[in-house]
Design a protein that fits this description.
Layout lengths: L2 E9 L3 E8 L4 E8 L11 E2 L1 H15 L5 E10 L5 E3 L9 E2 L8 H11 L1 H8 L9 H10 L1 H4 L4 E3 L1 H10 L4 E2 H4 L6 E2 L4 E2 L1 H7 L8 E2 L4 E4 L2 H7 L6 E3 L2 E2 H8 L7 E6 L3 E7 L9 E4 L6 E6 L4 H10 L5 H11 L7 E3 L17 E3 L7 H25 L6 E5 L7 H10 L3 E4 L5 H13 L4 H8 L2 E5 L6 H29 L2
Parallel strand pairs: 1-5, 5-15, 9-12, 16-22, 22-23
Antiparallel strand pairs: 1-2, 2-3, 4-7, 6-8, 10-11, 13-14, 16-17, 17-19, 18-19, 20-21, 23-24
């Protein structure tokens, strides 16, 4: 007899992932669909939303094909905040504009800051406007593509688009809405009509739900396409990093999640509203929770870029070479700002820098320098979180970059922080499955996350590396201001 299971699907920057999970947390099957984003111009990063639905259909068909499990609920998450505008018939009008890696809206940010007031935006919305905010990207489309925008009626993100396709429901979770700054009032936890009507005129903003609430049930047409049973519940879902935090139980006050992926993301759960111009303040995925968050524009993207340059050797080989290079990468220092930088630098015109290169440096040195650059950026963000009033008592690491051990060890050595690793590091798709399971059981998310995914290892700092990394971090902090003028001039040439 088939066992009851839940399906979790996550739409990421470089791939979509699906996982079929028994109600006891056992991973029955998982699958991946790789894809690419489009970069039509410098600073612009987009994706065709039809890919999101096609890949969910494909993943669902593959994962449920065995006949040994009966799916009883579905959870979806995705990268964000993104801006997908559709017409009244839900036809996408253009490719979706992606999250903070897309930096096209600098002029709109400056204009909205002048019109609405930086302090007032921060007070009402929790965060300053930055490349992460969805509101200015909507304004960019309205200004740069007015004929297209005139037909826009609805706003979607990856998770809410999948919910719409599966159930017909038009909803968005509170957390995702809190990253549409300045459309959402994070104090009142609702859309702020005066600014929403001004920045997104004509858009019917979606009703708001919490991530684990049921958005609707699978329609007959969606069941035909996906192979899922008609009528089973689909949760509202959320942005991938927040689903990933839930997947490893990092959602309690004092917790900090580090997500090792194409980008590095940090989510710190705080007991109340905290704001800081160098960070993002959001409502959490769960009712009653709030977060201070940070994110790098690149991390795994840089190591992937290096791998391409090196002729695509196995990552295991590169990690071995980086291990042999040793702390400090034989005198190399990198700034990982290859796509601008988000928190706490907040500089879309920042660029990558590799300092100290000689003819004797090797692939291992360069790869090690990239890992150490990410670790230094993590420490910079942690310092900003604590300066803003955060109280970090536990660090939990998750994501593909935790595999192999070296990267997490370097981050612990540079930051001086232990990191918990959970048994399952699949990530956001597993978090979506967790939320789906909560919707059909009586168990709380705390009980489920600890039972499904217990701690398997704690990475601790090596005291022998502390002095060397303390010196390296000081040089890292000095390098950005020392090189900023030159880098900005080069970025301007790239934008021509």
């Amino acid at each position: 007899m088939p066992r009851d299971a839940v399906l979790g699907v996550d739409i990421g920057t470089s791939s979509s992932k699906g996982v079929l999970v028994g109600l006891d947390g056992t991973v029955l099957r998982s699958a991946v669909r790789e894809h690419t984003v489009d970069r039509p111009a410098p600073g612009q990063v987009e994706m065709d939303a039809e890919v999101w639905w096609d890949e969910l259909v494909s993943l669902s068909r593959e994962l449920t094909d065995g006949g040994d499990a009966e799916v009883v609920a579905v959870g979806a998450s995705g990268m964000g905040p993104c801006v997908l505008l559709t017409d009244a018939d839900d036809t996408p009008l253009r490719p979706a504009v992606l999250y903070g890696v897309d930096t096209r809206s600098t002029a709109q940010i400056a204009r909205l800051n002048a019109e609405l007031g930086i302090e007032e935006i921060r007070r009402r919305c929790g965060s300053d406007l930055s490349s992460q905010a969805a509101g200015p990207k909507i304004a960019w489309i309205a200004e740069q593509e007015p004929e297209l925008y005139a037909r826009a009626r609805r706003l979607y993100m990856p998770s809410s688009w999948l919910v719409r396709k599966l159930t017909g429901a038009y909803v968005l979770d509170h957390h995702s809405a809190s990253q549409t700054t300045p459309l959402y009032d994070t104090v009142a936890q609702q859309w702020y009509a005066p600014w929403a009507g001004r920045i997104a005129p004509g858009i019917e903003l979606p009703p708001l739900r919490w991530s684990g609430e049921t958005a609707g049930t699978v329609t007959a047409e969606a069941a035909r396409r996906t192979g899922l049973p008609q009528g089973i519940p689909v949760i509202t879902g959320t942005i991938d990093a927040w689903a990933e935090a839930l997947s490893v139980g990092a959602h309690r006050p004092g917790d900090l999640m580090l997500m090792y992926g194409t980008t590095m993301f940090l989510i710190h759960t705080v007991p109340g509203l905290l704001t800081d111009p160098a960070l993002w303040s959001t409502v959490g995925a769960l009712p009653g929770t709030r977060n201070l968050a940070g994110g790098m524009a690149t991390s795994g993207a840089v190591t992937g870029w290096l791998r391409e340059l090196f002729g695509k050797p196995d990552y295991a080989e590169l990690l071995q070479l980086a291990e042999a290079s040793g702390p400090g990468a034989n005198g190399l220092l990198m700034l990982p700002y290859f796509a601008g930088e988000r928190t706490p630098v907040m500089d879309p015109q920042a660029r990558g820098v590799i300092a100290g290169l000689t003819l004797s440096h090797t692939r291992g040195d360069l790869y090690r320098a990239a890992l150490e650059a990410t670790a230094c950026a993590v420490r910079h963000n942690i310092e900003a979180l604590e300066k803003a009033g955060g109280d970090i008592r536990r660090v939990v690491a998750v994501g593909g970059g935790t595999q192999g051990g070296l990267w997490t060890r370097i981050v612990s050595d540079v930051t001086g922080r232990p990191q918990e690793l959970r048994t399952i590091s699949i990530g956001a798709s597993y978090g979506g499955a967790l939320l789906a399971a909560q919707s059909v059981t009586d168990a709380s998310i705390d009980v489920l996350s600890d039972a499904w995914n217990p701690v398997c290892e704690t990475v601790t700092p090596d005291p022998g590396n502390a002095a060397r990394y303390e010196e390296l971090y000081g040089l890292y902090r000095d390098l950005y201001p020392a090189s900023a003028d030159v880098v900005h001039a080069l970025a301007a040439r790239q934008d021509r």
